[in-house]
Amino acid sequence: MSRASLPMYDRPELAAAHDRLWQAVRTHLGEGPATLCRGGDPWDDWRAPDLVLSQTCGYPYRARLYGRVALVGTPDHRLPGCPPGHYCSVLIARAGDPRDDPAAFAAARLAYNEALSQSGWAAPQTFARAHGFTFAETLATGAHTHSARAVAEGRADLAALDAVTRRLMRRHDPEAAGLREIARTPPTPALPYITAITRDPAPVRAALDAAIAGLPEADRDALSLYGMQHIPAAAYLAIPDPPPPAG
Asked: Which of 32, 202, 229, 233 has minimal Cβ neighbours within 10 Å of its Cβ?
């Protein structure tokens, strides 16, 4: 038995495209489970000794998974203002909020998905410190989409969304129309693909490269997935870890 998962951007509208991506990877690799794992705790997949392929966030990778998984590669999403293989966080507020300077939100409530998220927690904290402030009040929501909804509904004033998630929300979620961009954080390496530490990542990388290249253009656009970059682990490990949320 073996397992594979692609949990980070696997919203319902993209499930079929992700399935086609995995089937192409499996064909090129010549092995792997018949279907992707869905619905469970992603940590179970990331730590599984039989993991063929998954995708994690840069913060969990450097904080808990480095040395326990093998790095496969990094997706290229063709995000504006980001080098290939990089992404950023988009700071969003309600469309009617008159504040434009991020520092004006220092006393406001920041919604974040989870404390071990690079885009939702680490990046905005580092961004705030670079601009001379810290977020005084925070709200944990459990998901980027929940953070955006908290802002739209007035339960929070600001949220930091993964730029790929923001792109997908603008395509698929009506509440995204009521939000506007305040700022973007500096780019960092995008969410890495990983495999089990006991597995040679090179064949998995080659299979994923070939699978992405062979996807229909509509699937590549739907997934915002245009290729792979080979960013070293050191680039992930060099990103600073912020203090955890208070309380």
From this structure: 202
